[in-house]
Design goal:
Elements lengths: L8 H8 L13 E13 L1 E7 L2 E6 L4 E5 L5 E6 L17 E9 L2 E8 L9 E5 L7 E5 L1 H11 L8 E7 L2 E6 L4 E6 H9 L8 E4 L4 E2 L2 E2 L1 E7 L5 E9 L10 E10 L7 E6 L1 E2 L9 E6 L10 E5 L5 E10 L4
Parallel strand pairs: 1-20
Antiparallel strand pairs: 1-23, 2-3, 3-4, 4-5, 6-7, 7-8, 8-9, 10-11, 11-12, 12-13, 14-15, 16-17, 17-18, 18-19, 21-22, 22-23
């Protein structure tokens, strides 16, 4: 398996301070960790806010989880076709890494994507009714992922879907393998799931990110930045020769992508974590908006993947310049 690419830090630093258009909010001066505590749940990989709670997935969990604002488990629902066990062995797990809320033909649905890093076992999509999570549809994604690899020039060993989001009429998928932002019309995606011979236009952009201690950062999570056409992302530096084996983590960071209604996606900025709780380094795995119900609330919540150990629940504030 080829080694992961290492991107020059100087180029990444240049990209991180790219000018924003006059309509864009300015980049934050700091990404402050407000609090950080351990949960009772291992290997959380995706987080999506829904109403007054959060839905979460784990890359080796056979359940969809519901969590409160403190990261405490409220409920869990078995996922169709998976054994009712606490965690799944690496060879058997669907490796659910990405979760987002999208409107489908029958209303809102949580989309849970397998990473595709080990085909066909991890080529799967769960479409779940957020109002009744026992209502689940399962779609095989082997053909879909093969089509995306063809259109993006990716090989199977460069394929690892880590995050998903919806921007306007588009579904956004982040491929950690090559730091690709893949964009397709959400209506066309639903049509393709039901009729795989349907035409599916796809665009993609490759984003260059920095390295931490010589280890390249790669996408791990994403969510929309409220009130903007920006997509916030997390990226982690994990020293591994492939996307199946875990490795030592040098740390992670946060950044933002500009996702205009049309035209290419671009990198706006990235920041290291700051604050007393920023150390020791952690592997940020997903991000979602925080409730923001009082002035001391964080802006966003992060979950970490400690590769089998307890995940952390982290509050994050993006502090504007001159605050």
């Amino acid at each position: 398996m080829p080694s992961l690419r290492r991107f020059p830090l100087a180029l990444a630093l240049f990209l991180s301070v790219m000018s924003c258009s006059h309509n864009d909010p300015p980049p934050p001066e700091k990404a402050l960790i407000r609090f950080r505590h351990t949960t009772d749940l291992p290997s959380l990989s995706g987080l999506e806010r829904y109403g007054d709670h959060y839905f979460a997935i784990g890359d080796d969990h056979p359940y969809l989880l519901s969590l409160d604002n403190e990261g405490i488990l409220l409920h869990r629902w078995p996922l169709t076709g998976l054994p009712a066990t606490f965690t799944l062995p690496k060879a058997e797990k669907p490796d659910l890494e990405a979760i987002t809320l999208a409107t489908g033909p029958e209303g809102p649905r949580l989309l849970l994507f397998g990473s595709g890093s080990l085909s066909p076992r991890r080529d799967v999509l769960y479409a779940v009714d957020p109002e009744d999570p026992t209502r689940q549809e399962v779609f095989p994604l082997t053909g879909f992922y093969a089509l995306l690899r063809q259109k993006t020039g990716s090989t199977p060993d460069q394929w690892n879907i880590e995050a998903a989001s919806v921007a306007g009429n588009d579904l956004i998928l982040l491929n950690r393998g090559l730091n690709q932002v893949i964009r397709l019309d959400i209506s066309a995606f639903w049509n393709y799931l039901l009729q795989p011979d349907t035409l599916l236009p796809v665009s993609h952009t490759t984003i260059r990110l920095p390295a931490l201690n010589g280890i390249p950062c790669a996408f791990s999570g994403a969510c929309r930045q409220t009130g903007t056409d920006h997509l916030l992302f997390t990226a982690a530096a994990e020293d591994t020769p492939n996307w199946i084996e875990d490795g030592p983590v040098a740390g992670s960071l946060i950044g933002a992508l500009h996702v205009p209604p049309s035209g290419p996606v671009s990198l706006l900025w990235w920041r290291h974590w700051e604050g007393p709780s920023a150390l020791p380094p952690f592997k940020a795995e997903s991000i979602a908006p925080a409730p923001g119900n009082n002035p001391t609330s964080p802006d966003y919540l992060l979950v970490t993947d400690s590769d089998g150990g307890p995940s952390e629940w982290i509050g994050l504030t993006l502090q504007p310049a001159n605050d």
